[in-house]
Amino acid sequence: MDNLTSKRFALTWILNLFGTAVGAGVLFLPINAGMGGFFPLIIMTLLVGPMTYLAHRGLARFVLSSYQTGSDITQVVKEHFGDGAGKLITLLYFFAIFPILLIYGVGITNTVSSFIENQLHFTPPPRIVLSFILIAIMISVMLLNERTMLKITTLLVYPLVAILFGLSLYLIPHWNGAILNQMPNSDNFALTLWLTIPVLVFSFNHSPAISSFALSQQRFYQEANKVDVESSRVLRSTAMILVLFVMFFVFSCVLTLTPDELQEAKVQNISILSYLANKFDNPIISYFGPFVAFLAIGSSFFGHYLGAREGLVGLINQMRTDPIEPAKCKKITAVVFFIILWIVATLNPSILGFIESLGGPIIAMILFIMPMYAIHKIPALQQFRGKWSNVFVVIMGCIAISATVYGLF
């Protein structure tokens, strides 16, 4: 295997993990993360890179710790924690990811319908027809082989990165620095930091694709040490470009708007690009809004689909004596997911956001706490014990979980 092939393979996965993390929520992130002020945002930016990298590296190492080559996360939890705990964790894993998939089904239908109506000035097709077409296209991509699917998702990420970076640069002449005058006292500072950490954790979360990513690395490199080194390198690069592009976009938006304007955008419940388009009376920015949302939902959908499919197949196989063959599983899950996503996207229920919030603490448990517990307990992971980074991941995981639970109630 030559160096160029290895680099291409790494870049493909960096972009796919970036795409999985950056959902349409990136358009609301500057409002949610920036409302606490500029200085808590700096601390968060310094924390979120190491948090993202170390937590996802821990989860990838956990997936690769199986004695059976090619075991996905659902098989690894059963192997290490036993049958009962394995079933419970697999069930929680599935129910933490699947609602996000439903939200993307609804989101892509709303985005395209709104774009046809408001930007193109046509009457959109009936919701039942539009959702059928869009979800059929996205699920068809998932039925292709891994290489083709990764290529298509990579193609979605390039324009997404370019637009985020371009918009961040475009806003620089409009920076006013009003946010710098907002100095919270120490109590408010700590509270703001505590409550905003989960917002960033879930904005940078690419855990649904980690199991597929780890197995893909294993198939490509084969040698255990090489797999760990190369997968760690990809995860480190992913965390770096997430911090660079996403946080630059967040800072650029926050420095352009005043604290009152951020509050107003929050009250209006519109994306940052819609608010900026209204503020500058610039129709071009409002055109970019739906386009970014479409690219972000599309690229993020694929990573979450992989995680949800893995969870469902794991659940089915754990209840059977002999596992279903992978090709058959692929088709069954595609049909089941298509029907459910199509019904939900047509009905457009308002409860989905709440269900997604309930999944937040579960994702944080699986991403931050479970791999660190496994490192402490499982012989196959003992070489990773005693590292300061493990303590950091557990502390940040506890902060994220406690703040998410507090935010729910």
Would you give an account of this structure?
The structure is a single chain. This protein is mainly α and 409 residues long. It has one domain: Amino acid/polyamine transporter I, CATH 1.20.1740. It is built from 16 helices and no strands. The radius of gyration is 21 Å and the shape is globular. The mean pLDDT is 89. The chain crosses the membrane at residues 12-31, 37-55, 88-108, 128-145, 152-172, 192-216, 237-257, 284-308, 329-352, 358-376, 388-408.
Helix/strand class: mainly alpha
Proper CATH architecture: Up-down Bundle
Q: Which range best describes the helical content: under 10%, 10-25%, 25-40%, 40-55%, 55-70% or over 70%?
A: over 70%
Q: Let me know the largest β-sheet.
A: none
CATH superfamily: Amino acid/polyamine transporter I
Q: In one word, what is the shape?
A: globular
Instruction: Give the total of beta strands.
Output: 0
Terminal residue distance:
53 Å
Low-confidence stretches: none
Q: State the domain count.
A: 1
Strand composition percent: under 5%
Mean pLDDT: 89
